[in-house]
Amino acid sequence: MATTRIEAGFYFLYFSFFPMLLSASGLYPQAKNVIWKSTNFKTVLVWEPKPSANYSYTVELSPVGGNAQKIPNCIQSSQTMCDLSTAMTDPKACYVADVLSQPPRGVIPELSEFPHKTSPKFCPYNDTEIDRPKFTLEVSKGKATLNVTDSPTAIFNGQHLQTLRDIFSEQLHYKVTYWKNRSTGKKTSDSQTSMIEVTGLDQGESYCFQVQVYIPSRTYGKQFGDLSHAQCSEVENQSILDVYSPAVIISAIILILLLTGIIITVTVVCCKRKKKAPKVDKKCVV
User: Fold this and answer.
1) Element counts in the chain: helices (H) and strands (E)
2) Residue 247: pLDDT band by 50, 70, 90 thresholds?
3) Positive or negative CA dihedral for 86, 171, 214, 62?
4) CA 77 to CA 264: how far, in whole Å?
5) CA distances from residue 98 to 61, 108, 121, 146 in whole angstroms, order as listed
6) Is residue 2 a contact partner of residue 28, using CB atoms and an 8 Å limit?
């Protein structure tokens, strides 16, 4: 008899309150399409859909195996993105994030647990994309010197904004791709420093250069960053054949010959007329 009463009480509570929970849960649709977007350790979490006025989103971030923390700027927010760059204090750790669907600000929650969607695991050190670097170029006497700027990241060490060099240290390489201007044949060079020298260039030729970050410790497909914009050197000690096309040179020669012929012809005619003229005291000198 006691068991029957317990069961009856259980069914009463279940059928009385579970529909209410379902109804409340339905007010807060679960987030979907939760993905990471990260470049140079500037990392944001994005998801769908845009919430209505009846609910909002809260983001919790946790290192794998660690405790979750609510992100202050992403608590009961109407946004569908959250910047987590500064919360990822250890770039070599791996993280997961939960997007909770909750009531909007100022509304008393009806649930103790809210629908949530967990993100894929994200490891900044291995997964962040690397943007194209910037560099200056000097070419002289068959040697090119490229000075690459180590790009800044979104991670601080105290008051210091760290660069890619600060984070990757000796794992940060630069791959240089170069070729003769107006040529399709390309060569590559690998450097562990930001000051790169490329030797063995043909003097009097213009060369073009592109640079990209190379992280050899990363998995295949994530080792290379974006290629920089190409920079081309000017040609040293250009000959007239390098500056002007043969057609232009031939045209200039013909024009000079024509002008010379006209000048000689006019001078000869002038002298003959002066010789035929009477009482000419001055000599005509060609």
Assistant:
1) 5, 16
2) confident
3) negative
4) 90
5) 7, 21, 11, 44
6) no
Q: 20: pLDDT confidence band, cut at 50, 70 and 90?
A: very low
Backbone angles phi, psi at 249, to 5 degrees: -65, -45
Cβ pair 60, 95 in contact under 8 A: no
Q: In what order do the strands lie in the sheet with 81-83?
A: 32-39, 42-48, 81-83
Identity of the amino acid at 285: V
Torsion of CA 6, 11, 13, 18, to 10 degrees: 150
**What's the token pair of residue 35?**
């993905």
Q: Which pLDDT score is estimated for 71?
A: 97
Q: Between these two residues, 77 and 18, which has the higher pLDDT value?
A: 77
Q: How many CB atoms lie within 10 A of CB 180?
A: 16
Closest alpha carbon to 198 in 211, 183, 185, 181: 211
What is the reported pTM? 0.72
